[in-house]
Amino acid sequence: MIVHIVMFKFKEENKKENLLVAKNKLESLLSQVPTLNFMEVGINFADEARAFDMSLYSKFNTKEDLKAYAIHPEHLKVVEFIKSVALESKVVDYEL
To answer: How far apart are alpha carbons 37 and 65 in whole angstroms?
Structure first.
């Protein structure tokens, strides 16, 4: 099993609204991308300087399934939106 984790830091402009939109768009991928087995999206409530604003935790059967997700047209639409409202992101992928 492959685990894919991404953390996002959002721009301050319309942050609350953009976080909710991004969360909804990401969660909708579970029904649109066949290789995506599990997804959990959380909006951060910690008030620390080192904190990111949102995290994504997802699972795939294989590395190839993760690669298929990465280039899936619906995923790319969500990526485009998030890139327009986020300052940065960090990713970790590992195998269980």
So the answer is: 10
DSSP for residue 12: S
Rounded-to-integer distance, Cα 50 and Cα 39, Å: 24
Report the SS3 class of residue 44. coil
What is the CATH classification number for the domain harbouring 77?
Answer: 3.30.70.100
Query: Is the distance from CB of 21 to CB of 10 less than 8 angstroms?
Result: no
User: In the chain, how many domains are there?
Assistant: 1
Dump pLDDT digits (tens) for 5-52: 999 999 999 999 999 999 999 999 999 999 999 999 999 999 999 999
What's the domain range around 11?
2-95
Sign of CA dihedral 15, 17, 51, 35: negative
Name the nearest CA neighbour of 58 among 92, 32, 24: 92
